[in-house]
């Protein structure tokens, strides 16, 4: 029986060994020595300390007093340095004392299982978890999951912090979480979670959440479902990204954009002031002159009623002209982003804009060429923003050519695909290649200091694109040419 027992010990996969109370190795089977990377003959007579890694030394020394007294009966982890590969070897060691009949400690019996692979997996897993926690913190995201059968929920530590809760917060139920969600978003989120469970539908949803301190945060939640072997949805899990900074940045950009548009509109009004003075001063002079002539003639000799009516009609016509100019000024300078879509002809759009600058062009010798026959196309859109864009183009042309020898501006229309194009060309030599790519950038301008803000073309392009059209520069033309692309009536009706 003793031989059978000895053979079993010697051939066991587990490591079995005997050491003295002082740590000298008395016996070690093949399994134990193989774990350490030595033969039994190489280890017997040496101390355990000769084979331990630093962390293993600490664990061994901490138990020395118990080992000497024969009180060491426990299971603990040991770390060795492999004799061949010099890599760390991890063992789970069960230790018990062996005593003589008088109770004196003779040996400590150890049985060890090699857990190196398990330990390396655990170390790698811990490392991944650590990196995942760092990634969550850096990127601002967290994880969650809900078990649909037990209704238990789990929230990652980073998500708990994201919601403004303490790290040691106890179990947080889904109902408790929903109470933190903004009331206007709560129903939508709850409905999506339900649909994910019943219809097996993944989803992405952005919602607002109030932290306990009252701070409002914006979170984006992407979730998917998990099924059991029977194909039943048993769990919903997801990732939550804190997009508060992104949303607030977008809001800031939108506010700045609105301020930029307002600034551009005010700048446009300021640049128009000189031109409007010309537009109004001439008809006002006509009114004053006609009124003075009537007064002088009536004082000298009574005028026939017909002649008085004729002069009054002339005054009224000029007054109507001033009223039209003022109306156009009010249109171009106001915010019309909320206006209803209406039907109008391209010709009406062009003439409404020209009412604001005809006289200024004439006073500075600019030849205005309008191809009336090409402007009969019916359009559907917001009338005022389009006049603002066209006025901006005409104003830019005026600034560019007013000092040239040849001064002309051409306005024509053409249909291209699903768009009607209003083409504005002037006698300028075009835009230099070096600055062509910057034309539509905010704050870029080629005008002298104090003339324009550099917002005009950028804002104008934004107005056109937000309404399904576009504003382009035509570099194939030898002169300076811009094209307003406006969706046709039938295309806009389909979109609506």
Fold and architecture overview:
The strands form four sheets. The protein has a five-stranded antiparallel β-sheet. It has a five-stranded antiparallel β-sheet with strand order 7-6-10-9-8, with helices on both faces. Strands 12-14-15-17-16 form a five-stranded mixed β-sheet. With 496 residues, the protein is an alpha+beta fold. The protein contains 17 helices and 17 strands. The N and C termini lie far apart (95 Å). The chain has three domains: 2-121, PAS domain (Beta-Lactamase), CATH 3.30.450.20; 140-242, PAS domain (Beta-Lactamase), CATH 3.30.450; 251-495, Histidine kinase-like ATPase, C-terminal domain (Heat Shock Protein 90, 2-Layer Sandwich). It has helices spanning 2-11, 30-36, 40-43, 54-62, 64-69, 116-139, 157-162, 174-180, 183-199, 244-300, 305-333, 346-354, 358-363, 383-401, 433-436, 456-466, 489-495; strands spanning 15-19, 25-28, 74-81, 88-99, 105-114, 141-147, 153-155, 203-210, 216-227, 233-242, 342-345, 367-370, 378-381, 408-416, 419-426, 470-473, 480-487.
CATH class bucket of the largest domain: Alpha Beta
Main sheet overview: 5 strands, antiparallel
Give the strand order, joined by hyphens, for the main sheet: 2-1-5-4-3
Shape label:
rod-shaped
Strand content: 15-25%
Assembly classification: single chain
User: In the residues, how many domains can be counted?
Assistant: 3
Radius of gyration: 44 Å
Q: Into which percent range does the helicity of residues fall?
A: 40-55%
Counted beta strands: 17
**Second rung of CATH, namely the architecture of the largest domain:** 2-Layer Sandwich
Low-confidence stretches: 491-496
CATH topology of the largest domain, by name, is: Heat Shock Protein 90
- The helix-and-strand class reads alpha+beta
DSSP helical segment count: 17
CATH superfamily assignment of the largest domain?
Histidine kinase-like ATPase, C-terminal domain
End-to-end C-alpha gap: 95 Å
What value does the average pLDDT take? Answer: 80
